[in-house]
């Protein structure tokens, strides 16, 4: 953490060019963002699978960040940059139309009604995601909490800048292509909760 994280960490106080691909050690063709990567299983899997893509990973908790840093070093990945602050700040820092995809996978559902205002999916953050995505870029949201899935559907469709292309139930109950699964998802399945995998394309 002391040696490698400073090399991987994004510094939002630094000015950024119109091409965030320049932030990676090797040239990448496009850039994706994962918000709240937890233990980093999905982030590392995606970076390994797509070495020509750059990945920004956001995780405020030190244990998750430490796991990601260890995996990045162990696999010698050069296409990941990390940020341990608020994902909203990172989205504001990024140039408009700079991301191919934004993933929000199993976010904290804040199940108590008085805490709903803390949910990451809200009008302000959806506007941030929409601004940062390229036309045709994709916002992916996965959750095993039905109330948060409904909440997200309502707010994304209310935004008006996204298209939900699903045509059948399988389109949102089947995992994403190449999905590696996560420990949290495995626990949800063991406890009988069926996840939803939503994908919204920017108009």
Automatic annotation (TrEMBL):
Positions bound to substrate: 112, 144, 182-185
Taxonomic classification: Bacteria, Pseudomonadati, Pseudomonadota, Alphaproteobacteria, Hyphomicrobiales
Presence of keyword Transferase: yes
Pfam families referenced in this protein's UniProt entry, alphabetically: Methyltransf_4
Gene of this entry: trmB
Protein role: Catalyzes the formation of N(7)-methylguanine at position 46 (m7G46) in tRNA.
HAMAP family: tRNA_methyltr_TrmB
Binding site for S-adenosyl-L-methionine: 34, 59, 86, 108
Name the UniProt record assigns to this protein: tRNA (guanine-N(7)-)-methyltransferase
UniProt keyword list: Methyltransferase, S-adenosyl-L-methionine, Transferase, tRNA processing
Similarity comment: family membership: Belongs to the class I-like SAM-binding methyltransferase superfamily. TrmB family.
């Amino acid at each position: 953490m002391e040696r490698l994280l400073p090399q991987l960490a994004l510094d939002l106080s630094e000015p950024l060019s119109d091409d965030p691909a320049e932030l990676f050690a090797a040239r990448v063709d496009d850039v994706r963002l994962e918000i709240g990567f937890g233990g980093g299983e999905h982030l590392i899997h995606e970076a390994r699978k797509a070495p020509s893509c750059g990945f920004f990973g956001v995780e405020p908790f030190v244990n998750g960040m430490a796991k990601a840093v260890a995996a990045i070093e162990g696999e010698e990945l050069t296409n990941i940059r990390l940020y341990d602050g608020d994902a909203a700040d990172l989205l504001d820092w990024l140039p408009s139309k700079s991301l191919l995809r934004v993933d929000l996978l199993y976010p904290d559902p804040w199940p108590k009604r008085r805490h709903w205002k803390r949910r990451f999916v809200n009008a302000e953050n959806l506007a941030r995601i929409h601004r940062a995505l390229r036309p045709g870029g994709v916002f992916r949201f996965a959750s095993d909490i039905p109330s948060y899935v409904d909440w997200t559907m309502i707010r994304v469709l209310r935004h008006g800048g996204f298209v939900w292309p699903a045509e059948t139930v399988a389109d949102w109950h089947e995992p994403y292509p190449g999905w590696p699964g996560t420990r949290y998802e495995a626990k949800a399945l063991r406890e009988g909760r069926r996840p939803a995998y939503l994908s919204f394309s920017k108009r």
